[in-house]
Amino acid sequence: MDRALRKRLETRFGEQLTGPVRQRHDQTEIRIRPADVPEVMRALHDDPELAFEILVDLAGVDTGTHMQVVYHLWSATTPDWLRVIADGMPRDDPRAPSLTGLWPGAEWMERETYDMFGIIFEGNRDLRRIYMPPDYTSFPLRKDFYLADDSARSPGGGVRHMEQTQAPSQATPSVVRRTVKA
Amino acid sequence: MAMRPDGPDDVRGLGVQPDGDPQAAARSGGSGSSLVTSADRDVAQPIVVPNTLWTSVQPDAYGGVDASPFTHLRNLEGSDLVLSDTARWGQLEVIPTKADLIIDLIRMNSLWPLLSGLACCAIEMMSAATSKNDMDRWGMFPFRASPRQADVLIVAGTLTTKMAGPLVRLWEQMPEPKWCVAMGDCTCSGGRYKRSYSTIEGIDRVMPVDVYVPGCPPRPEGLIYGMMKLGQLVKERRGHWPERPIGPSVPEDV
Amino acid sequence: MTASTTPHQHPSADDPRILLDDQIGQFETVPPYPPRTEREAEFYSLGDGEMFLNMGPQHPSTHGVLRVVLKINGESVVDLDPVLGYLHRGVEKLCENSDFHHIISQVDPLEYVSSLFCEWSPVMAFEKLLDVQVPRRAEYIRVLTGELNRIASHALFQGWMALDLGGLTPILYSFIERDEIVDMLAAVTGQKLLFNYFRIGGVNGDLNHEFMSRLGDWMSRATAQHEANTQLLNENEIFVRRMRGIGVLDRDTAFRMAVTGPNLRASGVPYDVRRAHPYSVYPELEFDIPTRGHGRGGDSLDRYLLRVDEVKQSLRIIDQCLHNMPDGPIMAKLPRLLRPRPGRAWAAIEGPRGLYGTYAISDGTDQPFRMKIHDPSFVHLQLVGQLMKGNLIADTMAVMASLDPVMGGVDK
User: In this structure, are strands A95-97 and A120-122 parallel, antiparallel, or unpaired?
Assistant: First the structure.
C-alpha cells in the first residue's frame, strides 16, 4: 500500500477524480469519467514521476445499473498496481474513448469488451466481434443475458442449483443442508 | 459394357424422373433434374440418388434443403446401374469371403486419424501418440492434416458454435468409410460447459459418433481403449454411421 | 438470390456426383457484407497481385483452433488477420454463476498446458478479497508445483516449436519429459492435465511419498535430459536459420503492445512479475531473470532460447523449495461457504506465457459478481500481424510458435 502514490495522484488529478483514491492490499484505485480517460492515461504514461508504462488489463464491468471500463497499469516507480475505473456509462449506449492511440495492444482487449458488453470504443479502428460469430446479436456478459437454464424444465426444478444466483436463504427446504456438528 | 437404350421412360427406379417423381424431386429440390437431362445412362454420368439415410433434426438446417441428396451409393447396390462391390457398407450381394476379412483387418489396423484437436483433450491425444503411450503400435501414427486422407475423426476438445460449421465441413470432406470418436466430456455431452452460451452440447448433435471416450481429459490409455473398441467396430462393420440418426438420443422432456 | 428458390449448387471438383451448397460459409475470406471497420476495409481490399490464403481453424499447427487469413503477394505475406473465437466457451459467464470453489475447476482449461497458473491467479485474487493468509508450507508447495508446471509447459513449447517448423522428432522427446513431470504431479494432484489442485487458502493435498521419490529421481537427471533435448535443436542449422532474424520485436513495440513474459524478456526488458511485483514466497528465493536481445530486439530464436534459459532457473527454484520446505498446515481455516465482503481485487502472476491476471469483483454473495481473466496469449496474438510484415508464408508458423499462444487462454 503506497501512501505516497495516493498523494501524487490526488495532487496531479485532483478535479478529474470522481471519488476518493482507495487502497487495499497492493492496489490503488481511482475513478474517473469516461471522457477524461485519454487525458488521464496520457498523463499517467508520460509523467516521469508516475510512469505507468505497461497497460496490463482492460476489462468491462456491468454493474446492473451502469457500465464501467476498468484499466490496470503497472509502473516501476511504485510497488502498487493502479486500477483506473472509468465509471458511469449508461447501459443502453455505453461509449468510451479508445486507448489504441497510446497502447496499440489495447485494440483486441477493447474488441473483447465490445463483444461481451457492447461498449463502443470511439477511435478503435477495428471494433468488431472477436469471440462470437460476426452475426451474433447479443452481448453475453451483460447482466440481462441469462444462461439458458434447462433445469427449470426438469422434474427437479426449484432445487437450488449452483447456477442460479440465489441467496442461500432462498433455497427450498428440500435442499439437503449439511450441518457440521463441531 | 452395352449401352442402354435412351429415353426417360427407360430410367431405372432410382434416378430422378424428369416428370417429377415425388420422392426424388422432393429430395433433390428440383435442380437435380438438370443433371440427368442427358439421355446417356452411363455409369459415368452423375447419378442422382435421393437421400433416405439421415435428415437433420432441425428442419431448416442447411437452408431448408436436404443436406446431401447425393453421394450415397449404398442405395444403388440393389440395382444394376452400378457394379456391385463387396467393399461397401451395408448389404452385400455376395457371401463375405476371406478377402473381405482381410480388408477389414487392414482397415482396422491402419486407421489414420485426422488432426482435429480443439482444446485440452488434444494434449492427451498427442500424449497418446507419442513415446510413452504409443498409438503407432496399432497403426495410428500418421495424423493426417487433410481430411481427404483420414479415416477417423477424433474430436478432442470442446466444440463451440463457431467451430461447428468447419468441423461438420471436415466430416463431410472425409471420404467413406469413416468413423468418429468423441473424446472427452465436452464432446460426449457438453461436459463442464454444458450451460454455456456458445458450446455445442455433445458432437452427436451435429455428426454421428461411433465411440464415446469420456473423461476430462481422458487418460491416453483411455483413448487407446476407445480406439481398440473402434477397431472392433471396424472389423465387424458395426459402425453407427449409416443407421443412426443425427441428433441427441435423449428425449426432449427429460 | 435469383428467382429460383433453390440455392445454386455446384459440383465438387473431386467427384461430380457430389454437390456442395453454395455458401462455403465460414471459409469465406472475403466477407460478403460491406466491411464494418476501417481495418477490415483496409485488409479486405486486394492490391495488385495479392490474394487471400486462409489458414483455417483446422491446421497442422498444434496451438489449437486459430484461423489466420493471410494476404499474400506471391510468397511474401503483406498482411494478416487472425480470427479467434473458435474455442470461446464462455468461462467468464460461467464463473459468474459458480461458487468460489467451483471456479477453480472452471478456470483450469483456459491455458491447459499450464493449468496451475490458471488456478493460481484467481485463487490469489479471492484470497485478497477474503483477507486470507496462506500458510507458508502451502505457498512453498504452490511454488514447487508451479515451477514444475512451467518446466512442463516450456518442454512442450520446444516440441511444438519444432513440430510447427516441420520436425517430427523433438515433440517425442518433449512429451517424454512432459509425461514424467505430469505423472509426478498426478501423484499429488490426481490429474495429469487439469490439475484442480489449488484451493482458496492453500492447496488440496500434501506432498506424498510417491511424489517425492519421483521428484528426486527426476531431479537427478533433469538437467542432463534437458541439455540433450535442447542440443537436438540448437545445433540444427535448418531450425536456427528459419528462426534467426524472423519476427523481430523491439522494446518500444513490446511496451506499446502490452507484451509481458518471455516475449518481453526476449526483447531485452527484464520484467518478470515475480520480481517486479512479488507474490507468494518468491522474495525469499534466489533466481535470475534471463533476458536476450538487448538493444536490437528479440527475434524468434531469442524467444526460443530464452525459454530454454528459464527452465534452468526453474530447476534452481525447485531445488531451493525442496531444501527450505517448512512444516505446517497446507490449508488456511476457512468456512465452507465463502462470502467475502463486497470489493474488488486484482492479482497477477508470472505464467509461462506472460502475466496472467484476474480481476474479481465480489458483491457479498457466494458467487463472484464479475471475474475478468487477463490472458497473455490473447494479447500476444495481436503481435503476429506486426511481426510478419514482409516475411514469407512459412515464417508465419515460426513467429506464431515462438510467441507460444495457447488457444484455450486466447479464446477463454
Answer: parallel
